[in-house]
Amino acid sequence: MILIVDDRPENILPLKRILELHQFSVDTAESGEEALRKVLKNAYSVIILDVQMPDMDGFEVANAIAGFSKARDTSIIFLSAVNTEKKFIKKGYTAGAIDYLTKPVDPDILVLKVRILKKLYEQQQELRTAQEQLRREVEVRKQAQEALTERMQELQAMLSSLPQMAFTISGDGQIEYVNQHWFRYAVDAQSFPATHADDTICDDWKRALGEGLEFNREVRLKELATGDYRYHLLRIIPIGQVDQPTRWIGTYTDIHPQKQAAELLEQQVAVRTNELRQKNAELEQTHFELQQFTWVISHDLKEPLRKVQLLNDTIKERFLGDNPEARSYIERSIRSSSRMSTLINDLLAYSQLSVPEPFEPTDLNALIDGLRHDFGTAIEGKKAVFHVTELPVIDTIPSRIRQVFQNLISNALKFAKPDQSPIITIRAERVRQKAIDSPPMPDGDYCRITVEDNGIGFDEKFLDRIFVIFQRLHDPSSYDGTGIGLAIAKKNIDKHHGLISARSRVNEGARFILVLPIRQHQPTDIASTPESL
Questions:
Q1: Whose CA is closest to 7, among 99, 118, 81?
Q2: Which of 167, 228, 375, 457 lies at a 20 to 30 A Cα distance from 260?
Q3: What's the distance, Cα to Cα, between the start and end of the chain in Å?
Q4: What is the Cα–Cα distance from 79 to 52, expressed in whole angstroms?
């Protein structure tokens, strides 16, 4: 904006029109005081100032404007029709004017001068703006540099306090800083510690440096004082952008004691593993010999026992027909011989459970039908009733899973109430996981089978005992048995990687629960199963 200052409106009007015709924005003031007020409020690129004015002449106004910081880039042109002498012109320039024109003024010359001064003002404003931006940028960079220097000092102080060898590397791979521990292995601050000939890391480190990747490696460093090599873990991490780190921070951590301990442990493990292999081989041989011994002993015991039973039956039929007392004694001997025979058979069956056998898909429906046929006489004699739902086909060892159901059905018939027909219910459902109370799931990986009866039951406080060999909850004189049946069932279920448990109350029947995998994934063998040890 251009400001014209003259006390005579007739002088202001032609100048204003000339400048406005050339697209200048023009403001006017008719006294020095008014001009000063406007200069305080507005920014002017050029002030055209008349010298002769009442109260304050042009020189006084120019001197006053020179003191305003807002007008420091404003150009002043003096116009005068009277004060045309050299001393007045000199005074005008001394007051801060850019030019001193005498009237009459050539309008074209005036317009050219105003245009040039206006352009100069605009350039000065742009320059000041650029200078201010540069000053601010310099200040920001200065603050960033100070903050970076402070952080580097903190980082170096922290690295100096570490018990490890610590160092920093510039973005181009040159060592910048090392702590005091460095000189235990390196000759100077610009050289890396010497490593063992087999621990070459140069190529890998160059690749990590070029790709901006973290670098980790176990190396052996040569200690300068002793010449010994010690294991260290070298770790170098990039700081800054992923593809172009500004610097790297690294540490060497002494892991020599841990490596020695690990090597010693590996040696001990190797020795112990070899011992275990030998023990396993001895155990397998002992196990085999024990099986052979059990088989021979059981057969050697059964042969004389059969003779005792045969002789007792012969004596009973031929010689004791008229002697009730002797007949009673011989019958007791026969029953004892029978129980001993059953015990030998059960012990033989229990000892053979550790023999490995393959799994195969088994239709449990057909298996239960076969057992019902085998127990036909007992079922008819006790008028037992069976309720069997559809059972699945699962992977089992058929002979062993048959022993499980055989024992459970035998117990249900044996421990029936005297005055009530046995009712045996067998049902199955697929479940989510291997747990007795697992929720049902149509496509679950396990099958839960329940064998339930309405017999005499038992007190659940004895639940842990019923699956232990030779543990009996009932009087042997009242109920036959050796106390091995449920132990055999438990061991067979374990071989199937399953679970067995029971729920019962006295005189309210018993419910045995089996949880078995639908498919078997691990083969059983003598070297891996707990039963073989």
A1: 81
A2: 167
A3: 107
A4: 9
Radius of gyration, CA atoms only, the chain: 55
Cα(204)–Cα(196) distance, rounded to whole angstroms? Answer: 16
What does the pLDDT average to over 461-484? 61
Spatial contact of 454 and 479, defined as CB atoms under 8 Å apart = no
Distance CA 407, CA 492 (A): 11
Per 3-state DSSP, the chain is made up of helix, strand and coil in percentages (nearest 5) of 50, 20, 30
Enter the tokens of residue 273: 């593993």
For 98, other C-beta atoms within 10 Å of its C-beta total 17
3-state secondary structure at position 221:
strand
> What average pLDDT does the structure give for the chain?
82
Q: Are residues 142 and 150 in contact, defined by beta-carbon separation less than 8 angstroms? A: no
pTM of the entire predicted model: 0.42
Is 485 strand, coil or helix?
helix
CA–CA gap between residue 350 and residue 344 (Å, rounded): 10
CA 273 vs. chain centroid, Å, equals 33
The answer for residues whose C-beta is within 8 angstroms of residue 221's C-beta and 6 or more apart is 185, 193, 194, 195, 196, 229, 230, 232, 252
* Helices 86-94 and 58-66, packing angle to 10 deg: 20
Whether residue 196 is predicted with pLDDT greater than 80 in this model: the reply is: yes
How far is residue 132 from each of residues 126, 128, 139, 160, measured CA to CA in Å? 10, 6, 10, 41
The residue assigned the tokens 């042997």 is: 476
Cβ(96)–Cβ(62) below 8 Å: yes
**Residues 401-411: what's their mean pLDDT?**
89
Q: pLDDT band at 292, cuts 50/70/90? A: low
